[in-house]
Design a protein that fits this description.
The protein is mainly beta and about 180 residues long. The chain is built from one helix and 16 strands. Bound molecules: zinc ion (ZN). GO terms for molecular function: zinc ion binding.
């Protein structure tokens, strides 16, 4: 198994705390991924999605996974398990430093995630505290914050997957 952290970045203007609409661990938020088969190298043509609320039981008491899928080319089965509790929203401070934030960690067997699609169902708030619902599928967003009397904008969405290690310390698990 390999653990992959999904890191996202964006240019935020007057906005902060970009995240899925009910948080990084939003049970119904679909994380859209393109996957590469580790056996034959085939990349899935379409993005598949995983959500925390949808799980599949694995055979022979091997627990459950959020995705069980056979490679269309070689037939090898791969699984993905989502690991909640690791994500934090993207803040304007991170954006200004051109840093990314981790939203979710994926435990992948047989597949490597190679692309993430943002899609709809995001939220952020203005630096004056006004909440905004955001559809990231267009890659940009602009609105006017009535309360702060200033425009707010989002653009230049970026994402990458980083291989991370599981670290256990004092009964707490984190990935870095
Ligand atoms: Zn394959």
């Amino acid at each position: 198994m390999v653990y992959y952290a999904l890191l996202v970045g964006a240019e935020l203007d007057g906005l902060t705390n970009l995240q899925p609409s009910r948080g990084c661990d939003d049970p119904n938020f679909p994380y859209y991924l393109k996957l590469k088969c580790e056996n034959c190298g085939e990349i899935t043509a379409k993005s598949t999605y995983v959500t925390l609320s949808e799980q599949v039981d694995l055979p022979k008491g091997h627990g459950s996974a959020h995705l069980v899928q056979k490679c269309k080319l070689c037939g090898r089965e791969g699984t993905i398990v989502m690991i909640p509790g690791q994500g934090t929203p993207l803040t304007i401070e991170q954006s200004q430093k051109e840093e990314k934030t981790c939203l979710m960690v994926f435990d992948c067997r047989g597949y490597e995630p190679v692309e993430f699609s943002f899609g709809a169902g995001w939220k952020a708030e203005s630096v004056h505290g006004t909440p905004f619902e955001i559809d990231c599928s267009e890659g940009e967003f602009s609105e006017y914050d009535e309360k702060g009397e200033c425009p707010v904008e989002l653009g230049n969405l970026q994402s990458t997957f980083k291989v991370v290690k599981k670290l256990e310390r004092g009964g707490k698990t984190r990935f870095a």
